[in-house]
Design the sequence.
């Protein structure tokens, strides 16, 4: 019997030889028949199965009579020559027999690729689709990432310098030694300091109030309220004492560096936390050094006044004590950063309560800060001998300087805080956040000292024996007739000259001053150096990066650094427990064409290559599913139904794509990749074809027989929801429970599994890149309340109809979806490319209610005609958030024919309106359940829905205006002419068939295009005639065009779409009036509308595919194997069919009843729609009749804004209201687009940064492992040959079933 080391060496040799010469798909190896089967299976799996990307399913004894090799006769004969005990090892469905006897192991290798010398080298040219590899981001994206990091870092640095400089100048103006602000009017400077202190609190109060009112927030306990009030009281007292009371007594150098000492308590708490954690001493030494440096700075600070200042006044010494006390109180500000590190129950409870009631706590803390700051500043002024009434006599130029400094300080602080957060989120923590913050103090110090030095050395016309400091006090040198900048710099100099050590240039005093500045600066660096090693996920929430929402304007960089979340660094680096998400890609397919199938299948294979299943510690696990509706057909002289030509096309597409992705080497010496290994499984709903993709992920194609299971898209979605979530996910944990698992633990694990299970819905023609899916995954991983996220859908195709849709889709995503995302929730996450969370789908009133069978006319419209929109409505009503990511691009075919476009929108328009009305009807309850949907957002939806309903009437009014201008006819007659064509079309729609209605609409669309061109020209002519575009209509259209152009410029990759805007404008009557009429009148038509007639599928070239795939046959060329369905899964499918998915059988009477109900609903909806538009037109006509009575005269303006005397423009109130309504909607959407665009860029840059690092790390690791593996194999082979460990009679046989004889024979 062979020793284990001998077996391992022999296996290593065999694998090396096999992998080096053949494209191995499956390998089978047997062991000792007396060895336990499970041990051998584990041995084979762990030692070498992963090297060949295969999966060993089981190891079992196999009698000689049941030996099965490859279907090739020669292979079977070779296996049958052996005798003795056999073991069958099932590898991806293949069997081969193995025999072991003393000193001998026979191994069978099946499904080899063809040897290179048998390739047809002359036919090596290929025709492959364009496949873009996104494993490594493109250079332009890397450039964008680096450019953004550089810009953000520069802005953080500049804004921090501006914030600190402006604040220190305000403090300087409060010093009694300065003269820019007279001594009697110093309260104005102190008031400006107080305003800058409360600025962040005011902004935080507004933000928190908004979230508290329109979002949801908990109420803190009394204990938490008392603790927060006490801490904020001390911090507010300390801030005012330091900045208002103490700092105006010090020089500029001391003030700059004194602020760095507020890190003292944070350093102490870091030491305590590290000591309790018993971690590395070198980690503890950093905050200890910081403590020593800060204390040394305090000592030097005190000595500089006691020793350096011979005539130190009691007031100065008191200011020193107050400053030290103030810095200690301020250092309490960041207690929450360390509260959970000491396992103190009181602090843990407080922190947990604050986290659950953050908005209310922020409101409370900001109000305390504002109140205490106001009281202390207000009380200090009279106590110090100042009078508040002197503010009224402040010179205007001095007031402008103070006001300008306050504005600069407040704005720069807020912007610096925001850009610092951005720097962390885009993974530029060190170069764009930490380094700029560290350098800010030094730069400000240089900014003040350099001009002071220049002015002092440039003062040459001084009296004899008079120093520069003394000259500043002489008459004539007070600073009159100088610029404001020079005056401020001289005031800075006066603060230095006011101290003896600076005025007399005392070496000891200057050493004290320089020493304390250096100590405090280094103390800040050492106490915040932990940030340098902070690990950040790809996309982080601000609350996970920073402990508090508030920043401190007086010491901005210190507050930002100390507010960064502190984490103890471990002795041994602990990797974050990765929770890989499971993503099921589920595509619904019906009668797609060959090229459409190719796009979708390529996207799946591309994702398989991007995230191989064999990759260890992957962040996501993928499984692919295609649900093929109506896949079978009846064939004459056959008892069973056969798959149709569309299924054959799909199988051929998978085979072609598999070969393309399996060929990693495109030269003529390449190994031919094996065709996909297929498992054909009979199922209760038809059949299933399973593939193992080149990188190990699984693709399942489910073929639905509409005679066995309910067909159409919604029922296919219910199929995979209940199969993947209801059966596979729940069953796994239920089996654990039956085996004795703990109920509570299993509940928690199941809950976590639901949250980390995602379903990507796809259409059969969708194409996407892996990055698009990963960006959607980021949204769901980051925010646990997000139930679904959709990407940017791009229509593809050619022709005017597609051009129209390109602009329509662009505007819908640029403006509407971004506004929905920012102000509330996205209303529709399209099924062609959307990611859903399993926990959200499995929530109450979602998946269960989604199975509702249509029993009313309204159900057909809302449930079956717009299933994607209805599913999102259910999620929103249950409290889940739906988001939009503009960087997740997906491409889908758009209707290229006018008829197909109208039929598609005939389904979408009524269902969208029905779901919106449903959501608005439950608006109060939904806003209570869903924190993202506020009543203000409900009001926005009402406004948008109202303008959409009144669209036809608005278009008629626009066309009537052009008639009135061009033909110079009365307004009412022009309105009658404009409304007559749509009324005629409305009547024709009730009489004609659908196809004829579309033909009439097409002809009218052409005529309306000419009318819209005339309308556009009439608007321009009106502007020319009035000699001004400063009219409501002129401003509206110019503003609209400007907004669209700017929006397109902010989407540079899509800027060319703006060209189609002209076509979209011409087609407005067709798309927003005629289409609405057609959709309403044909609401009773519940057919799908497109692809109803089977087209010609692509001709097949592989004979094996044309065989009856669902028959009990095996296609040796395609490695097909027929499998039976597992019994428990068969039971599940039968129960699911019986309860939810039995084919719908409707009698004639029931069909007639539904037809009558649908017509009644159609008539009711059409009448309501007509009445709303009619009332709008009648009201407008009436107002036009009495225009002179109620019109609003507005002064006529020239383009430069000057008023034209004696001329006015009359505006009707209803016209003004209409224009204002549209203008408000567009401006709101534009602002939302700007906000959303910025955060999309942040997400994209962070994705590029992390993916680049991950790709480089993976490449480096792979090359290292490959080198180590080669070294180990060489060592093992040398040992085998050198030591003769394997007897000479040991023989290994390698067989290639595609060759006539044994391909390789080796005797060791």
Sequence:
């Amino acid at each position: 019997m062979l020793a284990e080391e001998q077996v391992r060496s022999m296996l290593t040799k065999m694998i090396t030889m096999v992998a080096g010469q053949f494209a191995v798909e499956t390998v089978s190896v047997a062991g000792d028949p007396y060895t336990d089967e499970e041990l051998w299976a584990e041995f084979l799996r762990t030692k070498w199965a992963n090297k060949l990307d295969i999966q060993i399913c089981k190891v079992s004894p196999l009698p000689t009579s049941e030996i099965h090799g490859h279907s090739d006769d020669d292979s079977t004969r070779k296996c049958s020559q052996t005798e003795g005990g056999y073991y069958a090892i099932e590898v991806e469905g293949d069997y081969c027999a193995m025999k072991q006897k003393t000193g001998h192991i026979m191994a069978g290798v099946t499904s080899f690729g063809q040897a290179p010398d048998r390739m047809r080298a002359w036919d090596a040219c290929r025709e492959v689709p364009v496949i873009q590899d996104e494993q490594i981001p493109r250079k332009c994206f890397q450039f964008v990432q680096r450019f953004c990091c550089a810009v953000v870092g520069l802005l953080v640095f500049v804004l921090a310098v501006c914030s600190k400089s402006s604040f220190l100048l305000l403090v300087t103006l409060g010093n009694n030694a300065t003269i820019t602000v007279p001594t009697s009017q110093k309260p104005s400077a102190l008031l400006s300091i107080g305003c800058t202190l409360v600025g962040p609190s005011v902004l935080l109060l507004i933000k928190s109030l908004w979230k508290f009112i329109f979002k949801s927030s908990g109420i803190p306990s009394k204990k938490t309220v008392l603790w927060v009030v006490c801490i904020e009281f001390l911090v507010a007292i300390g801030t005012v004492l330091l900045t208002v009371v103490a700092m105006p007594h010090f020089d500029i150098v001391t003030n700059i560096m004194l602020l760095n000492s507020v890190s003292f308590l944070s350093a102490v708490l870091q030491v305590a936390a590290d000591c309790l954690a018993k971690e590395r001493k070198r980690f503890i030494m950093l905050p200890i050094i910081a403590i020593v440096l800060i204390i040394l700075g305090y000592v030097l600070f005190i000595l500089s006044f006691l020793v350096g200042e011979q005539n130190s006044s009691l007031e100065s010494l008191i200011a020193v004590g107050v400053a030290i006390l103030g810095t200690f109180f301020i250092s309490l500000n960041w207690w929450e950063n360390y509260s959970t590190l000491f396992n103190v129950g009181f602090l843990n409870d407080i922190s947990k309560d604050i986290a659950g009631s953050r908005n209310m706590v922020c409101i409370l803390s900001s109000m305390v800060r504002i109140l205490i700051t106001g009281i202390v500043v207000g009380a200090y002024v009279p106590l110090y001998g100042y009078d508040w009434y002197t503010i009224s006599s402040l010179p205007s130029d001095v007031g402008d300087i103070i006001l300008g400094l306050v504005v600069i300080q407040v704005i720069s602080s807020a912007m610096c805080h925001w850009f610092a957060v951005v720097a962390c989120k885009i993974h530029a923590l060190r170069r764009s956040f930490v380094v700029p913050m560290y350098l800010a103090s030094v730069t400000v110090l240089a900014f003040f000292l350099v001009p002071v030095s220049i002015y002092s050395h440039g003062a040459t016309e001084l009296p004899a024996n008079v120093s520069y400091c003394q000259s500043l006090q002489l008459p004539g040198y007070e600073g009159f007739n100088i610029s404001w900048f020079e005056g401020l710099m001289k005031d800075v100099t006066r603060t230095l000259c006011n101290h003896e050590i600076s005025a007399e240039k005392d070496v000891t005093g200057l050493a004290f001053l320089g020493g304390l500045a250096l100590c405090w600066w280094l103390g800040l660096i050492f106490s915040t150096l932990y940030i340098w090693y902070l690990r950040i996920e790809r996309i982080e929430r601000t609350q996970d990066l920073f402990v508090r929402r508030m920043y401190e304007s007086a010491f901005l960089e210190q507050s930002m650094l100390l507010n960064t979340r502190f984490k103890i660094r471990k002795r041994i680096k602990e990797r974050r427990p990765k929770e890989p998400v499971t993503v099921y890609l589920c595509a619904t397919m019906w009668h797609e064409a060959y090229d459409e199938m190719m796009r979708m299948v390529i996207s799946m294979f591309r994702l398989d290559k991007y995230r191989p299943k064999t990759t260890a510690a992957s962040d996501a696990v993928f499984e692919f599913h295609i649900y093929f509706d109506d896949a079978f057909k009846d064939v004459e002289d056959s008892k069973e139904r056969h798959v149709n030509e569309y299924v054959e096309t799909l199988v051929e597409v998978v085979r072609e794509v598999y070969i393309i992705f399996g060929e990693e080497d495109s030269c003529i010496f390449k190994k031919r990749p094996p065709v996909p290994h297929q498992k054909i499984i009979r199922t209760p709903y038809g059949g299933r074809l399973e593939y193992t993709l080149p990188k190990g992920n699984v693709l399942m194609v489910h073929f639905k027989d509409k005679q066995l299971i309910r067909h159409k898209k919604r029922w296919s979605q219910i199929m995979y929801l209940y199969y993947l979530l209801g059966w596979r996910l729940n069953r796994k944990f239920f089996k654990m429970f039956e085996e004795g698992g703990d109920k509570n633990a299993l509940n928690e694990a199941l809950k976590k599994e639901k949250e980390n299970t995602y379903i990507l819905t796809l259409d059969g023609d969708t194409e996407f890149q892996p990055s698009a899916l990963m960006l959607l995954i980021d949204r769901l991983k980051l925010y646990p309340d997000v139930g679904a996220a959709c990407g940017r859908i791009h229509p593809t195709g050619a022709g005017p109809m597609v051009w129209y849709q390109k602009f329509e889709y662009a505007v819908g995503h640029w403006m509407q979806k971004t506004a929905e995302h920012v102000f509330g929730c996205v209303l529709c996450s399209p099924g062609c490319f959307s990611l859903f969370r399993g926990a959200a789908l499995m929530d109450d009133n979602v998946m269960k209610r989604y199975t509702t069978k249509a029993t009313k006319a309204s159900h057909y419209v809302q449930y079956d005609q717009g299933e994607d929109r209805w599913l999102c409505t259910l999620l929103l009503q249950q409290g889940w958030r739906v988001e939009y990511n503009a960087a997740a691009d997906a491409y889908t075919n758009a209707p290229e024919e006018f008829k197909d476009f109208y039929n598609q929108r005939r389904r979408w328009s009524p269902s969208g309106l029905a779901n919106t009305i449903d959501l608005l009807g439950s608006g109060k309850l939904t806003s209570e359940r869903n924190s993202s949907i506020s009543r203000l957002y409900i009001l926005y939806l009402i406004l948008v829905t109202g303008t959409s309903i009144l669209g036809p009437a608005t278009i008629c009014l626009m066309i009537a205006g052009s008639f009135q201008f061009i033909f110079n006819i009365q307004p009412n007659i022009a309105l009658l002419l404009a409304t007559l064509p749509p009324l005629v079309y409305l009547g024709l729609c009730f009489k004609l068939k659908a196809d004829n209605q579309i033909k009439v609409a097409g002809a009218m669309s052409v005529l309306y295009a000419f009318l819209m061109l005339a309308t556009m020209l009439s608007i321009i002519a009106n502007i020319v005639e009035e000699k001004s575009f400063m009219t409501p209509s002129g401003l509206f259209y110019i503003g609209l065009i400007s907004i669209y152009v700017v929006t397109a410029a902010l989407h540079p990759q899509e800027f060319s779409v703006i060209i189609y805007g002209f076509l979209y404008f011409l087609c407005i009557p067709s798309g927003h009036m005629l289409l609405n009429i057609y959709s309403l009148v044909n609401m009773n038509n519940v057919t799908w509308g497109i692809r109803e007639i089977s087209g010609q599928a692509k001709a097949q070239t592989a004979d094996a595919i044309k065989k009856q795939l669902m028959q009990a046959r095996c296609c040796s060329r395609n490695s097909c194997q027929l499998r039976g369905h597992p019994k428990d899964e068969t039971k599940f499918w039968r129960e699911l069919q019986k309860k939810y998915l039995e084919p719908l059988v409707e009698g004639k009477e029931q069909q007639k009843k539904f037809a009558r109900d649908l017509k009644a609903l159609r008539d009711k909806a059409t009448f309501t729609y007509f009445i709303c538009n009619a009332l709008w037109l009648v009201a407008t006509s009436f107002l036009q009749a009495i225009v002179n009575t109620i019109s609003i005269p507005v002064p006529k303006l020239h383009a430069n804004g000057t008023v034209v005397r004696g001329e006015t423009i009359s505006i009707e109130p209803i016209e003004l209201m209409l224009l204002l309504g549209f203008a408000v909607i567009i401006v709101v959407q534009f602002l939302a687009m700007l906000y959303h665009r910025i955060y999309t860029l942040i997400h994209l840059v962070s994705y590029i940064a992390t993916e680049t690092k991950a790709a480089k790390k993976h490449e480096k690791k792979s090359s290292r492992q490959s080198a180590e593996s080669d070294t180990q194999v060489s060592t093992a082979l040398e040992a085998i040959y050198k030591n003769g460990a394997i007897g000479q009679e040991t023989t290994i046989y390698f067989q290639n079933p595609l060759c006539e004889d044994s391909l390789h024979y080796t005797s060791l």
Summary: DSSP finds 43 helices and 23 strands in the chain. Confidence is low (pLDDT under 50) at residues 13-119, 1093-1121, 1284-1308. The longest helix spans residues 1213-1283.
